[in-house]
From TrEMBL:
CREG-like beta-barrel domain mapped to chain residues: 10-178
PANTHER family per the UniProt record, alphabetical: CREG1 PROTEIN (PTHR13343), PROTEIN CREG1 (PTHR13343:SF21)
SUPFAM superfamilies: FMN-binding split barrel
Keywords attached to this entry: Glycoprotein, Secreted, Signal
Gene Ontology CC terms, in alphabetical order: cytoplasm; endomembrane system; extracellular space
Organismal lineage: Eukaryota, Metazoa, Chordata, Craniata, Vertebrata
Localization: Secreted
GN (gene name): Creg1
Domain of life of the source: Eukaryota
Signal peptide feature range: none
InterPro entries to which the protein is assigned, alphabetical: CREG, CREG_beta-barrel, Split_barrel_FMN-bd
Protein name per its UniProtKB record: CREG1 protein
Length: 181
């Protein structure tokens, strides 16, 4: 198996493990919403967000993509109208693809597309989200308090894995959460 930072990358025939692995090794993703903004209403709108499913390290990821958001952010304003979104994460942001000379668009540079919705977490889950996010993004703790930041999660309903030639693989949320990365 080829090595990536933090452990061996799963083989292409283990799509659920690959999805968990890629999410856990990514610190950010591209979140796409349907715009509610004047002039863009109803059009796709993508934006970069810091994410985390848990502190760095093998087997410490929950598989749940957590986010730290404010209503001042344009994509969050879109989500207030329609909470449906997609989130794409890719090993292109790690050293793995560069080391192997994989173009970010190459299926060998694995990327995962999650579809679902963004939901605010309750107080008990906010403790987990805070630990997950602040362990990877410590600067967040110093962001302006008057922006009314809150913790949210990506509620996954569909998962597509592109990690090898031959097309997308579909993984159910049940399969995804039942494996360790």
């Amino acid at each position: 198996l080829l090595l990536a930072a933090g452990g061996a990358i799963p083989p292409p025939d283990e799509a659920a493990r690959m999805a968990r692995f890629v999410l856990h090794h990514c610190d950010w993703g591209a979140l796409a919403t349907l715009s509610a903004q004047e002039g863009l209403r109803g059009h796709p709108f993508a934006n970069i967000f810091s994410i985390s499913d848990g502190p760095p390290g093998p087997f410490s990821g929950s598989g749940v993509p957590y986010l730290y958001l404010t209503d001042m952010e344009i994509s969050v304003q879109d989500l207030e109208i329609n909470s449906n979104a997609s989130l794409t994460v890719s090993l292109a942001q790690t050293s793995y693809c560069k080391k192997h000379r994989y173009d970010p668009q190459s299926p060998l540079c694995a990327h995962i597309i999650f579809c679902g919705s963004i939901v605010k977490v309750n107080d008990s889950e906010a403790v987990l989200a805070k630990k997950a996010l602040f362990s990877r993004h410590p600067e967040m703790e110093t962001w302006p308090k008057d922006h009314n930041w809150f913790f949210a999660k990506f509620n996954i309903t569909n998962i597509w894995v592109l990690d090898y030639f031959g097309g997308l693989k579909i993984v159910t949320p049940e399969e995804y959460y039942s494996v360790k990365p």
